[in-house]
Specification:
Blueprint lengths: L1 E5 L5 H10 L3 E5 L3 H8 L5 E3 L11 E4 L4 H8 L14 E4 L5 H13 L3 E4 L6 H5 L5 E5 L1 H14 L3 E5 L1 H31 L4 H8 L7 H11 L9 H17 L5 H18 L13
Parallel strand pairs: 1-2, 1-4, 2-3, 4-5, 5-6, 7-8
Antiparallel strand pairs: 6-7
Length: 286
């Protein structure tokens, strides 16, 4: 079985390397030569595609790309890869996208006799590298059953949520809550500083209270240490929170608190922190 993987960024690269480490034949494509080289170093069964069109020959194609528009540009339309893939192959999309785009991709794949799953990921690039990040699966149950062994190579646990709208919405809801929690945490740390409490001490004390959260445990110490190295960048967080708020609006939910967080990420990006970790919103909170 030949796998094709488009997009070898912080999350996608780890998944592609997991397939190669498992001895699977993987044809990879990315605009970054460095990302390709890093991925091919993980084993002998990986190969770089010279042109993205070569990926259409794969039995299973993965995409891991930043924006819904990027995915549509690669996969849909007259020159899109779905039009060149063979009937009976499978397309697994692992990016964080909105339910409308997920449904569009699913319908286009089905029209061509191609199986489709929308499989956004949880946690961080560190977990993606070791296949320890959750995989939230949306699509037809029979396709999930067919692809379950493949999904267990790239992540764990593999969780079936229902149709593509369910998995894509879940990931956006998760990121909406997580990024809003991070904004609240940054506000709290700033208030603690005004009160004369050092961030490290504040975080230690908060760990035994109702304030404890994933963001506090992971990104709180990074903020306290002045560590804003990019694990999940401000611009990506901004994209996800924007998509999530747009999803809420489309379903007549006002999501007021989350829209406040959205403004923080917009401001952080505008201030030039877009390529730093999303915890850099701390820098624009005073």
């Amino acid at each position: 079985m030949l796998f094709g993987f488009i997009g070898l960024g912080q999350m996608g690269g780890g998944l592609a390397r997991n397939l190669i480490r498992a001895g699977k034949e993987v044809l990879v494509y990315d605009l970054s030569e460095a990302a390709i080289a890093k991925t091919l170093e993980s084993g002998t069964t990986g190969k770089a595609a010279k042109e993205i069109s070569e990926i259409a020959a794969a039995d299973v194609v993965f995409t891991s790309l930043p924006l819904p528009g990027d995915i549509e540009g690669v996969m849909l339309g007259e020159t899109g890869l779905l039009g060149a893939m063979k009937a009976g192959s499978a397309y697994i999309e692992v990016s964080t996208i909105d339910p409308r785009t997920a449904r569009k991709l699913s319908n286009a794949a089905e029209e061509r006799g191609i199986d489709f799953l929308q499989c956004p990921l949880g946690k961080t690039p560190a977990q993606a590298e070791t296949a320890e990040e959750p995989v939230f699966v949306g699509g037809k149950k029979e396709v999930y059953e067919k692809m379950k062994d493949v999904l267990n190579i790239i992540g764990s646990p593999v969780l079936y949520l229902g149709e593509v709208e369910a998995s894509s919405a879940f990931k956006l809801i998760s990121n909406l809550i997580g990024m809003t929690n991070l904004a609240v945490l940054a506000e709290g740390i700033r208030i603690g500083e005004k009160a004369g409490i050092e961030p490290k001490i504040l975080l230690e004390l908060l760990g035994d209270t109702g304030a404890k959260s994933f963001q506090m445990d992971i990104r709180g110490p990074w903020i306290a240490a002045g560590d804003f190295a990019n694990r999940f960048g401000v611009d990506l967080a901004l994209k996800d929170v924007r998509l999530g708020c747009e999803m809420a609006d489309a379903w007549s939910n006002n999501a007021k608190t989350m829209k406040v967080a959205l403004e923080y990420y917009k401001e952080a990006s505008a201030e030039g922190f877009g390529k730093e970790d999303c915890n850099a919103i701390y820098k624009i909170i005073r």
